[in-house]
Design brief:
about 60 residues; mainly alpha; 2 helices
Length: about 60
C-alpha cells in the first residue's frame, strides 16, 4: 500500500511537470520569461489534479 501511495505522489509530480513543459512548448514560451514561480504555480495544481486521478485509478484511498 505504501508503494502505491508513493507511486501516486511521484507520478502526479511527474505528470504535472510534464504538462507544464508541454504548455511551454505549445505556446513557445521561453522558460526564463516568467521565472520559476510561474512554473511552480502551474505545475503544482496540475500535479494535484493528476494525483487525484491516480488515487482513484490505483485505489490507494488516500482521499476519502
Amino acid at each position: 500500500m505504501l508503494a502505491k501511495r508513493i507511486a501516486v505522489i511521484v507520478g502526479g509530480l511527474i505528470i504535472g511537470i510534464a504538462l507544464d513543459l508541454c504548455i511551454l512548448a505549445l505556446y513557445a514560451i521561453p522558460p526564463a520569461k516568467y521565472g520559476w514561480i510561474y512554473h511552480l504555480g502551474t505545475a503544482l495544481p496540475l500535479a494535484l489534479a493528476a494525483m487525484i486521478v491516480l488515487d482513484a485509478v490505483l485505489k490507494t484511498e488516500m482521499l476519502p
